Amino acid sequence: MKIKMLAGKTIEINVDLVKERAKCNFNIREVTHILDGGEKNTIQRKKIEDISLNDGQSRDVIPEEYLSPKERYENAVKKSCIYARIIKTELMNMTGLETLGFNSPVFRRIADAYFKEVTPLLAHFGMFVPTIMGQCTPEQLAHWLPRALNFEIVGTYVQTELGHGTFIRGLETTATYDPQTEEFVLHSPTLSSYKWWAGGLGKTVNYCVVVAQLYTKGVCHGVHTFIVQIRDEETHMPLPGIRVGDIGPKMGYNTGDNGFLVFNHHRIPRENMMMKNAQVLKDGTYVKVARHEKLTYGTMVYVRVMLVNEMAFNLAKAVTIAVRYSAVRRQSQPKPNQPEPQVLDYLTQQHKLFICIATAHALQFTSDWLYKTFTSVLADIRDDKIDTLPELHALSSCLKAICTSDCAAFIEICRFACGGHGYMASSNLSMIYSYVSATRTYEGDYTVLLLQTARFLVKAWEQVEKRRPVTSTISYLSHAFDKLKKPWDGSNEGIIRAFQRVAAGKISACINCIRYHQKSGKDFEDAWQLTTIQLVAAAEAHCRAVIYDTYYNETIRLTASSSPNVKSVMEQLCTLYLLYWSLERTGDLLRFTSLSEKDIFDLQQRYEKMLAVIRPNAVGLVDAFDIRDEILNSTLGAYDGRVYERLMEEALKSPLNAEPVNSSFHKHLKPFMQGKL
Ligand SMILES: CCCCCCCCCCCCCCCCCCCCCC(=O)SCCNC(=O)CCNC(=O)[C@H](O)C(C)(C)COP(=O)(O)OP(=O)(O)OC[C@H]1O[C@@H](n2cnc3c(N)ncnc32)[C@H](O)[C@@H]1OP(=O)(O)O
Ligand SMILES: Cc1cc2nc3c(=O)[nH]c(=O)nc-3n(C[C@H](O)[C@H](O)[C@H](O)COP(=O)(O)OP(=O)(O)OC[C@H]3O[C@@H](n4cnc5c(N)ncnc54)[C@H](O)[C@@H]3O)c2cc1C
User: Are 655 and 66 within 8 A, CB to CB?
Assistant: First the structure.
C-alpha cells in the first residue's frame, strides 16, 4: 500500500501496519507531546532532528558490523566530530533553543542515529563537563568550562581502577602535594591502582578528571578530583609520566575506547585540584569547604539521575521495534482453515510487550520527576542547605538500580518477542541490550546501590520509631507499625498503598533481623551483612512503591486537560502496570496484605482484559514515542514495516556475498572434503 507522507515523499507501508494505525482510537500527537513534556518541546525536538539528520551525515556507507575494531573506532570519531560540530555551531546558538543545555536528552537521542554503539565523546558530555560544573571554584569554572564546551579540550572521568570500582574510598592512585613546586604528583603505586574503564580514555581524550587519594603534609585526606592533562594538545602524544591505552574488546561500547591510565610521578599544577569542596593552600594546608563530605561524589549522582531517562528512551526504542514487528509478523494456525494471525494477537505476546510500553511511560515520568528533585536539591546546596541530599542519594541510587535492571530484562523480552529475526544484528535489539546491560553495573552496581538506599531506609525507620518527621517519599513508613495486614481493595490507589505496606513490612523485617543478630552478640556491621539479602529486597520494594506512586500521580496530572481517549489510554497503561506488578509479587502481597486467592483470580482477569483493551492501540502507542527510523536503526522496527525487504537488503551487504565462492573453499574445505588435508 502506498502512503503519501507529510514531507511530500511517498513511501510504501506494510498493509497490516496501515490497518493497525487506522484502528488506533486516540490522538497520537497528543501522547507524544505528553511524553516530550509539552508541544513546544516536541516542535523543538523535531526541528533539531531535522537539522541533525536530514542531510544524511549520520548514515554509514558500510554497516559498522563489517568494519575492523580500529575502523569502527575511527568512524565513530569522524561522526562524533560531525555531530559535535552540528551541536556546537548550528544548534546551541539557534534562536529559540537558548534554554537547551549541552546535556539535553534530545542530543542524546539523536546520537543513536550517528552511533550504533557509543560516541567516544559520551563521557566528555556525560561526565567531564558535569564534573567541571559541579566541582570547580568560579575561577576554575571560568578557565575550564568554555574550553570544554568549545571542544578545545576533550575529557573523561577517570575513577575506577583495576582493583576497585565500587569502593571509592579504597582507590590507590595518589596525588601528593609538593609545596616546593606547588604541584601535585600523581602516581600509580601498584598494578591494582591502574586506572581502568574510563570512556574515551584509550585514544580520544587529552584531559581527564582523575579521582585520587590526596596527601598533603604527610596526611591522607581521602579521594579528591583533579583535572589532569594526559596528552599533548598539538601532537596528542601521551605526556611524560603517562601510560595510556585502550582496554580491548567488550560486550558492547566497542566504539567507546574505554581506557587504562598509569601515572609515573606525573606532576600537575596545584590549581588543577578541583577546589569547590576542599582546597590545598600554597603551603600545603588542607581546607575543607563543603559541609557534606560526599559532594565529591556529585557527578555520579547526576549520571544516575540521567540514566533513568536513558532507560525510558532505550526501552521505548526496543518496544517500538518489537510491537511494529509483531504487527507485521504472522505465525501458526490456532484454528484450522483460518489465516495465520499477527503474532501481536497472541495473548502471550501482548503480555510480553504491553508492559514494556507501560514501563517506558513509567520511567519517563519518574525520570522527569527525579530530575526536578535533583535540580531542587542542587539549589538547596547552593544555598548551603544539605539536608535534602541524603534523600536524593537514596532515591537516585535505587531508581538507577531498578530502572537499569528492569529495562535490560524487558529489552531482552522484546528480543524474544521478535523470534529469530530479533537475534539479527540488523534488528538493533542486540546493540540496545548490550548498551543497557552495562548500565546495571556502571555508575554503581545494582546491589551496591540498593544497599545504599537500604542504609537510608533503616535510618528513616529509626526516625519514625522516635516519632520524628520524615520526608515525603518515606512518609508511608509511619503506618508501618500497624501489625494487621493491610486490607486489599484492588483499586489503583489501593494497590499503591498495598505496595507501600509491602516495603514498610520488608524494612521492618530487616530491622528485626539486624536487632536479632545484635542481641545474639554480633556487632552492627556483622548484623548488617547478615541481613543484606533482605535489605536489597526492602530497597527494591521501596523503589517500586516510589515508581508506582509517581507514575500514577503524574499520569493523572499530565492528562488532566487531555482529550478523553488520550486520558483513558494513558490510564489503561498505568493500570496495566500496577496489575502486572501485583501479579508478579503475589507472594509479597499475601504476606503483607489481606489479598486472597480469589483476589489473585480477579487480578488475572482484570490484567488480561486490560491487554485486550490496549491491543487496538498498541501500534499507535509505539508510534507516539515518535522515534525516527534513523534513530531506531532497525530492519524490524522501521515505520513502514517493510521487514522482509529490509532484512534481505541488509543481508546482501555482507562482504561474504561479494563473491560466489569464498577462497577458503579451495584452500581448506575442498582439500579436507577430498581427504587431502
Ligand atoms: C558528539 C557526541 C554527542 C553526544 C551527546 C550526548 C549528550 C548528552 C549527555 C547526557 C549523559 C547521559 C548519559 C550518561 C552516560 C555516561 C556514561 C557513563 C559511563 C560510566 C561511568 C562510570 O561508571 S564512573 C564510575 C562510577 N563509580 C561508581 O558509581 C562507584 C560506586 N560507589 C559509590 O558510589 C560509593 O563507593 C558508595 C557505594 C556510595 C560508598 O561510598 P563510601 O564508602 O564513601 O560511603 P559509605 O557507604 O561509607 O557511606 C557513608 C555515607 O555517605 C553517604 N553517601 C554515599 N554516597 C553518597 C552520595 N553520592 N551522595 C550523598 N551521600 C552519599 C551514605 O549514604 C552514607 O551516609 P550515612 O552515613 O548518613 O548513612
Ligand atoms: C561500559 C562501562 C563503562 C565504564 N565507564 C567508566 C568510566 O567512564 N569511568 C570510571 O571511572 N569507571 C567506569 N566504569 C567502571 C564502573 O563504574 C565499575 O565497573 C562499577 O562501578 C562496578 O564496580 P566494580 O567493577 O568494582 O565491581 P565490583 O564492586 O568488583 O563488583 C563485583 C560484584 O561484587 C558485588 N559487590 C561489591 N561490593 C559489594 C558490597 N559492598 N556488598 C555486596 N556486594 C558487593 C557486586 O554486587 C558485584 O556483584 C565503566 C564500566 C563499564 C562496564
Answer: yes
CA of 444 to the centre of ligand 1 (A): 6
What ipTM was assigned to the predicted interfaces of this complex?
0.98
* 615 and 551 together in one domain: yes
Structural domain of 42: 25-116
Task: For residue range 501-560, list pLDDT tens digits in order.
Answer: 999 999 999 999 999 999 999 999 999 999 999 999 999 999 999 999 999 999 999 999
Find the residues whose C-beta lies inside 6 A of ligand 2: 123, 156-160, 164-166, 197-199, 253, 258, 438, 441-445, 447-448, 451
Question: Is residue 339 domain-resident?
Answer: no
Considering 64, 88, 116, which residue would you say is the last residue of a domain?
Answer: 116
Looking at the structure, do residues 111 and 137 belong to the same domain, yes or no? Answer: no
Distance 252 CA to ligand 2 centre (A): 16
212 assigned to some structural domain:
yes
Spatial separation of the C-alpha atoms in residues 87 and 48, rounded to whole Å: 9
pTM, to two decimals? 0.97
Identify the residue whose cell numbers are 509517581: 550
Q: Which H or E element spans position 643?
A: helix 643-651
Q: Which atom of ligand 2 is nearest to the CA of 200?
A: 8
- Report yes or no on 248 lying in a domain: yes
Q: Would the CB of 441 count as within 6 Å of ligand 1?
A: no
Angle between helices 532-558 and 389-417 (to 10 degrees): 80
Per residue in 441-462, pLDDT (tens digit) is 999 999 999 999 999 999 999 9
Number of compact structural domains in the chain: 3
